[in-house]
């Protein structure tokens, strides 16, 4: 029987939500072992002078704990 843990991370990109998502997952996989999945909890943008300057995603990352 596997035991999983969920942790929240926030990632950002100046390009798109998709790019922020990919960056967040890549970074999570570098730090955490046994990453099994992730879901987007929230999305938001940073706006400066009427233009979107940053896309942010809050990810809930699931990973399996080692015995």
Annotate the secondary structure layout:
Elements: E1 4-13, H1 17-31, E2 35-48, E3 51-64
Antiparallel strand pairs: 1-3, 2-3
Keyword list:
67 residues; alpha+beta; 3-stranded antiparallel sheet; 1 helix; 22% helix
Describe the structure.
- It is a single chain.
- This protein is of the alpha+beta class and 67 residues long.
- The protein has one helix at residues 17-31, and strands spanning 4-13, 35-48, 51-64.
- Strands 1-3-2 form a three-stranded antiparallel beta sheet, covered by helices on one side.
- The radius of gyration is 14 Å and the shape is elongated.
- The mean pLDDT is 96.
Concise overview:
With 67 residues, this protein is of the alpha+beta class. It has one helix at residues 17-31; strands at residues 4-13, 35-48, 51-64. The chain has a 3-stranded antiparallel β-sheet with strand order 1-3-2, with helices on one face.
Helix coverage percent: 10-25%
Output the radius of gyration: 14 Å
Average the pLDDT over all residues and give the rounded result: 96
Overall morphology: elongated
Give, in order, the helices and strands.
EHEE
Strand content: over 45%
Distance between the termini: 10 Å
The class by helix and strand makeup works out as: alpha+beta
Characterize the biggest β-sheet.
Answer: 3 strands, antiparallel
Given as residue ranges, the uncertain stretches (5+ residues, pLDDT < 50) are none
Number of strands: 3
Strand order of the largest sheet: 1-3-2
Number of helical elements? 1
